[in-house]
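Progress report, Aim 2. The chain analyzed during this reporting quarter is listed below.
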Amino acid sequence: MPPAAEVLAVAVLVAEVVLIAVAWCAGSRRVADHTAKQGPRPHVHDHPAQAGVVMLGIATLSTAVAAAVRLGSWETTWSNLTDLLLLGIVAGGMAGHSVMVLATRGQPDSDKPCWALAVATVVATLGGAVSPAWVVA
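Predicted structure tokens for the chain:
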């Protein structure tokens, strides 16, 4: 049986990928609606890959803190650092941004609900915080 930290890391990554995929589908639907002249023009940030600096910063901070806490249990190699970068920072930041895209329905200038900001922050933080479980030797 794998350690609990690895199971949690896998579960968080799966949830992040699902969030990103749902936001991607919603953005694609809005583009298709606009193309068919049935909806407004989509905003440039109405895409999961356009993660904002705030979400990437939150994911980076939580990844750095979690990696520093567990520094003695993993080796600092390029492979491990790229795992932290991709699975912690990029996936966490994109998932947090996806929550905001879904909550505002692709209109980033609209009022952002407080619950959406809180959920996006938690998703980005959790995504970064569990990423060191991928690199623990």
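The CA atoms of residues 104 and 112 lie 6 Å apart. Helices lie at 4-35, 53-69, 78-104, 114-129. These observations will guide the mutagenesis work planned for the next reporting period.
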